Amino acid sequence: MDLHTILGKLFTNASAVGIEGVFQFVFGPHQVYWSQITDSTHTQAGRHPRPDVTIEVAEKDFLGIMAGMANVEELFASGRLKIGGNMGLATLLPQIIDHARHGSTVAAKVDMNQRYPTPPRFSEKLTASLPTQRHVERRPRSELSVQEFRARYLPHGIPLVISDALQDWPLFKLSREESLVHFAELQGITRHGDYVKKTFSTERDFRSTSMAAFIASLDNPTALGADGVPPAYMGNNILPAQLLELINYPPYFDRSLFIPPRIWIGPKGTLTPLHRDDTDNLFAQVWGQKSFILAAPQHREALGTWSTAPQGGLDGCDFNPDAPDYQRFPQARDVTFLRVTLEAGDLLFLPEGWFHQVESVSTSLSVNFWVNSGRGW
Q: Which of 64, 134, 170, 358 has minimal CB crowding within 10 Å?
């Protein structure tokens, strides 16, 4: 199958995942194509005069992506796939590819910048049936067996901090200067401007950035952001393959259940507002400190929860625990918020459905593992 045909099939139903615009692909000097996505899709050879996104990638790597043999985010992180233009649109490329490879029917269009009602979850009933949790327990790794974790915390969806959990990680033992050697050829996507007010929106200011340059800039006073605007944040990037050998997957779940780990890097003040994920999460703090504010899943309505898609999944909140508006959200007075600070070497078990707000207390590098444990599904 030729590249023109493959691109046509790739974007056939791209508008269903909230995409509209022109994608320019450059596979080589004489292999250039563009696809325009609206309610329908048009693909042709050549260069578009005003593309929204430009992607440069070798033909063999692109064919590997479409065959499921390569990961677009890993290729980007390693510098083998380059992106220019609207990074907000570009961040949706993995969804487009996944939809093209696995979706066989035409889906209803989803506006990624619209808020949808949030459906209930099993985790809400689960935690509502348990005594109210008023603090997050902290256990040393040496005193917590895998069997106890799976019997006591996992089935009931109880958050837990496991201390001294990263002692066998080479990445944890490296100084920041030593780590720059490993980050030298890697790249990531950073968030800029007031990304907190545009949480989960494609309208956020995303930029392609060298990981080493970003880390080297973290101690610069300009990295702390302007008044009222959070500092730049390299959040939710896939952990590059070159760094996988510097970490170890936590032993508490079967390896087959893990989603590829993500990396988060930023100075003091980076913030992700209150939200909840649709899988369990193991969050490892490698450098610095991060503070978490947690709320149990059953407080969905009290926190003004909304979803990015009709079926739910990634759920944001309008309630701000640091600036509570009880007039607008009176039920939030009954919510017990748990506050915990992760130190370097800590691993947080954050069960599916738990609301969490995350802020960097100091210059921070974290790695997290989302896990498809399937509890109660």
A: 134
